[in-house]
Amino acid sequence: MASARAIVGTILPILLVPLISFAGPDDEPTAAPGLGEIMSANQMRHAKLWFAGQAGNWKLAAYEVDELEEGFDDVIRFHPTHKDAPAPLSELVPAMMTGPIGQLRSAIAAKDGARFEQAFDVLTDACNACHQETHFGFNVVIRPTTNPYSNQRFDLPQ
After folding, report:
1. pTM score, two decimals?
2. End-to-end Cα separation, the chain, in angstroms
3. Residue 115, exposed/middle/buried by CB under 10 A (0-12, 13-18, 19+)?
C-alpha cells in the first residue's frame, strides 16, 4: 500500500497544473485557470471559512475571506465574460460579492460568532444569486455540514 506522502506527492502536482498561470514574453498569461477550477478553489475556501468561524479562529477566517476575494478577482481577471452569462462577470461579481465580503470582514473583526453566521449566509445567498444570474443555478452552495478537512485543525491550539 502506497504511503500517504507518496500519493500526495503524485496527485498534488497534477491537481495544481490547471491553476498555474504561465507568463509569456510580455508577462501576459498564456494559459489561465478555468472558471471551474477557480470556483472549485473558492468552494474549498467557503467551507474552510465556515469551519474557521465556527471554531472562533478569527485569523484563519480572515485569511479565508482574503483567499475568497482573490478567487473572485481571478474570475474577473481571467474570465471577465462567460458564454452563458447574460452580463459580464467583471460587473456581476463585484456587484454581488462586495457587500457580503464586507459584512464578513466586519463580523470577523468584531469576533462575533452570531454576526459571522449571518454574514456567511448572506455570502452563500449571494453566491447562489450569482449562479442564478449567470445560468448556473443548478450549482447550489450551502453551509458545510461535515468537515472534509480532517487533516486541519480549525480551533486554535492551546
Report:
1. 0.80
2. 35
3. middle
